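Much of our argument rests on the idea that a fold can be written as discrete symbols. Part of our work consisted of pairing the sequence of a single chain with a tokenised description of its backbone. The amino acid sequence and the backbone structure tokens for this protein are reproduced below.
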Amino acid sequence: MPDSKKILIAKIQAHQGLKGWLKIYSYSESMQKFSNYDYFFVLNDKTYTRLDVDDIIFDKSIKIKFKHSSSREDNNKFIGKNLYIESSQLDSLKEGQFYWKDLIGLNVYIDNEKKVGIVSDIIETGANDVLVIKGDKDYLVPYIFGESVKEICLESQKIIIDKIYYE
């Protein structure tokens, strides 16, 4: 059963060699962030199993070796599984910064008056992220704080956007 305090961060793709190494695909913005984590979790039969990191190599992809894994056979059950971290392992954010997980599900208003929908997803584009807002129809709003996004208030669960992005 998924835990709201666990954050999906990567997926185990395949074996890497014969000595227990695994190749993983990162959902994180920076591969280097993986060096900050001493452990991860995998979800098995509705419960999380903690996997302590033995070593990590950064190459074209991320290769990871977990403690107590010395062969391919030790890791067969993890191939294709998602890797999670605890929300407490995330970096602290500066004022005005937010994690995507905190924005998804927020109510979206125009100029703090009219509710137009809910943030259902966020798309990474190269220039800036884009909020996907589900309402009477779907809207795509560039995530440019101070411009298209005027205000975010996590306590009241709302985002205020400029009206020109709703028309």
In short: The mean pLDDT is 87. The CA atoms of residues 109 and 115 lie 4 Å apart. The domain at 6-89 is CATH 2.40.30.60 (Elongation Factor Tu (Ef-tu); domain 3).
